[in-house]
């Protein structure tokens, strides 16, 4: 092997670098209750607060957020713009081709945000398809795009948005009749609307897989090469998940013990 002269050092891994700097940069897309900025500029959310606790446990005391479009999160992670995705991203086999997911930190169903009173009677993706004048807002790159496609909703009925904020505005100002998101995202948006313009559609027939309502599992996402970092965080997740400290941390964001993942691994979900 060639010898290395003085001053030459091996490039640091992500884990070595973030420990040396004491800072981890996390990519997020403004989406309550997972990762978002409050009115005072403070970055918070289930994924962000979890990241603060977990990274502190491995010796990294500061979490810095890097805001990007949801659809660009994986590309920007792999381009080195940040170290980890902490955005409440659902584990899917398609995404797992490009990133490695940590173990899931929650499990959620789906919902629609609609105008108050649900004037178009939208309780499922099929209800959207059946009414050709109805427009459904989705966040580009989110799993709901796939659900809309699976339900054969024509492209002309889809309002594609770059962010949850943009999609929320589309329903509020009438450019879309419904917005498809996770149940807790819809709850968070409905709470933000102080004028009673919108509400969560109840009941809601969730997308089905093999005859069962399909649940989504959220997790941190890591670069493929950052295996050691992912494994360390996974060890901390295993110890922390479901603890009193964890449940207290996620409660302000609408999560309860019933939203915790049970007997399912990132590996299983990445291969479905």
Low-confidence stretches: none
Q: Span between N and C termini? A: 43 Å
Helix proportion: 25-40%
Classify the secondary structure makeup into a structural class: alpha/beta
Overall residue-averaged pLDDT value: 94
Shape: globular
Strand content: 15-25%
Biggest sheet statistics: 6 strands, mixed
Record field, number of beta strands: 15
- Counting DSSP H or I runs of 4 or more residues, the number of helices is 10
Radius of gyration: 20 Å
The run of helices and strands is: HEEEHEHEEEEHEHEHEHEEEEHHH
Question: Any chance you could write out the topology, listing elements then pairs?
Answer:
Blueprint: H1 14-21, E1 23-28, E2 36-37, E3 43-44, H2 46-57, E4 62-67, H3 73-78, E5 84-90, E6 100-101, E7 106-108, E8 110-115, H4 125-130, E9 136-139, H5 143-150, E10 158-161, H6 164-172, E11 178-182, H7 183-192, E12 198-200, E13 208-209, E14 212-213, E15 216-222, H8 227-240, H9 244-250, H10 266-271
Parallel strand pairs: 1-4, 1-5, 9-10, 9-11
Antiparallel strand pairs: 2-3, 5-15, 6-15, 7-15, 8-11, 8-12, 13-14
Briefly characterize the structure:
The protein is an alpha/beta fold and about 270 residues long.
Label this structure with key terms.
single chain, 272 residues, alpha/beta, 6-stranded mixed beta sheet, 5-stranded mixed beta sheet, 10 helices, 15 strands, 22% strand
Written account of the structure:
This protein has 272 residues and is of the alpha/beta class. Helices cover 32% and strands 22% of the residues. The chain has 10 helices and 15 strands. α5 links the parallel β9 and β10. It is globular, with a radius of gyration of 20 Å. The mean pLDDT is 94.
């Amino acid at each position: 092997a060639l010898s290395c002269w003085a001053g030459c050092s091996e490039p640091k891994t992500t884990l070595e670098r973030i420990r040396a700097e004491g800072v981890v940069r996390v990519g997020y897309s403004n989406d309550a209750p997972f990762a978002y900025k409050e009115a005072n500029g403070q970055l918070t959310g289930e994924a962000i607060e979890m990241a603060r606790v977990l990274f502190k446990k491995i010796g990294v005391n500061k979490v810095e957020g890097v805001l990007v479009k949801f659809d660009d999160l994986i590309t920007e992670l792999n381009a080195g713009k940040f170290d980890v995705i902490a955005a409440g991203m659902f584990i899917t086999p398609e995404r797992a081709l490009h990133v490695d997911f940590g173990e899931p930190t929650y499990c959620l169903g789906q919902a629609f945000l609609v105008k108050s009173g649900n004037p178009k009677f939208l309780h499922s993706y099929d209800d959207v398809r059946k009414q050709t004048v109805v427009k459904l807002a989705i966040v580009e790159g989110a799993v709901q795009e796939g659900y809309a496609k699976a339900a054969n909703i024509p492209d002309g009925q889809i309002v594609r948005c770059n962010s949850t904020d943009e999609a929320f505005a589309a329903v509020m100002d009438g450019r879309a009749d419904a917005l498809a998101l996770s149940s807790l995202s819809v709850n968070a948006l409905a709470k933000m609307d102080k004028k009673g313009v919108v509400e969560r559609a109840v009941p809601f027939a969730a997308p089905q897989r093999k005859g069962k309502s399909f649940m989504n599992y959220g997790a941190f996402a890591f670069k493929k090469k950052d295996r050691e970092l992912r494994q360390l965080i996974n060890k901390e997740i295993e110890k922390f998940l479901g603890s009193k400290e964890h449940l207290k941390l996620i409660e302000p964001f609408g999560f309860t013990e019933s939203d915790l993942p049970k007997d399912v691994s990132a590996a299983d979900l990445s291969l479905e």
